[in-house]
Amino acid sequence: MLITKTSRISGTFSTMELDITSEQFARIESGIELIQNIVPHLSSDEREFLITGITPDEWNKLFN
User: Which residues, including other chains, have CB under 8 Å from residue 26's CB and lie 6 or more apart?
Assistant: First the structure.
């Protein structure tokens, strides 16, 4: 599924293709459950993107 999010840090839009369903995405967006319980197969970078919109490249540039 292609997911587009806005970075909470820079405000830029980024898109990632992630192995999730629309149901999982809705559960993540609801904020009721822990993301690692919904999509344990995703990497920490992918889960971070879903929560904050921050890509691995942006994260490395800011906190390298």
Answer: none
Residue 48 has pLDDT above 90, yes or no: yes
For residue 64, pLDDT over 90 is answered with no
| Owning domain of residue 9 | 2-63
Domain count, the chain: 1
Residue 43: in which H helix or E strand, if any? none
pTM equals 0.90
CA distances, 56 to each of 27, 38, 40, 47, 60 (Å): 23, 20, 18, 11, 6
Q: Is the pLDDT of residue 62 over 90?
A: no
